[in-house]
Hints:
The structure holds 2 protein chains of 2 kinds.
Chain A: H1 4-35, H2 41-46, E1 56-62, E2 68-70, E3 73-79, E4 84-90, E5 102-111, E6 114-123, H3 131-141
Parallel strand pairs in A: 4-6
Antiparallel strand pairs in A: 1-3, 1-5, 2-3, 3-4, 5-6
Chain B: H1 7-10, H2 15-39, H3 53-80, H4 83-114, H5 123-144, H6 148-163, H7 165-175, H8 195-235
Helix pairs in contact in B: 2-8, 3-4, 3-6, 3-8, 4-5, 4-8, 5-6, 5-7
Amino acid sequence: MFSKKARSRLSIFIVLLFLSIIAIFFIFKSLEKNIVYFFSPTEIYNKSDISFNKIIRIGGLVKKNSIKKDNKFIIFTITDLKNEIIVSYEGIVPNLFSEGKGVVAEGKLKDKKYFVASKILAKHDENYMPPEVKKALENSNN
Amino acid sequence: MLKKILPNKILSLNSNIINILIFFLIIFLVIGLIYSLVISPPDYIQGDSVRIMYVHVPSSIISLGCFSFIGIASIFILIFKIRFISFITKSLAPIGCIFALISIVTGSLWGKPTWGVWWVWDARLTSMLILLIFYIAYIYTWKFINNFEKANKISSIIGIIGLINIPIIKYSVDWWNTLHQPSSLSLTSLPTIHYTMLIPLAIMFLGMLIYSLIIFLTGYKIEVMKFKLSKKKNLE
């Protein structure tokens, strides 16, 4: 069907494809921690090697009736409906930041339940719950 | 219609087809822009910045589609040495590149009022930037390597390596926690975009697709002409 040369190129290609799939699989496996943009409260709760002085990001939903504002200081709770983390932040929050909506906070953990944020990002969720939260929810339910 | 794409037929492609396409392009863009900028409602939480989506989403789809084609075609180029596919991929690359750039810029403009930042290094945004870099590498390989066979080989390898990135972009929002929201459109479930926003999105997508087709046909024709001319020169 194909010329002899084409056939040999095809077999080389298939071997290379197979090898590169394996290589990529291992690369991603080792990079997984760096690819994740934020952790959910449950992931923080289950984590054994937490570095408290490193800047990390946590994300989830802003718990209803948890926002307390005092001048420029704001305290609220991030939840994945299973575990919660209290976040304190000084500064201006984005317009889309509100109760019951997705949020990502960047900063340092003081302990497993308390987080001091240096930056707040609103996560858009288009009328539906973000799958990360849902996934975290399902994971914590199991 | 498809036979016209063959290199010996493309030169007979008369300007009538291009003119018809331009006619449809204008109609789709005018209706699409009026619909998306005036008629369609603002979003319940984002307000008017949702209108950026009508450019952002089609650009992303077209740039991903172009590179998917380039990557898969590159496999055929390397294995079966079918020359005219190179002309197709070569003329598709600038289109995909510019739409990748548009996607990143519009996304950034949307990110500032929505997330509060222009740019974050999450999986979706980073992989999209990598796609843009692959496009630039692909285009510059053709530009700076004058030997056709050599440029063909190197650019195809770039295309195949870049192909790995495509599913990563597509599924990054499902595989990892990202700031970018998951896709609202999928083949398996109902869209989570209201139909009043879905209609202008579809019209804008068709308009931008026709635009890409016009640029592609023109570019492809020029590539074939260039190759035939250089061949003629070599014979003389």
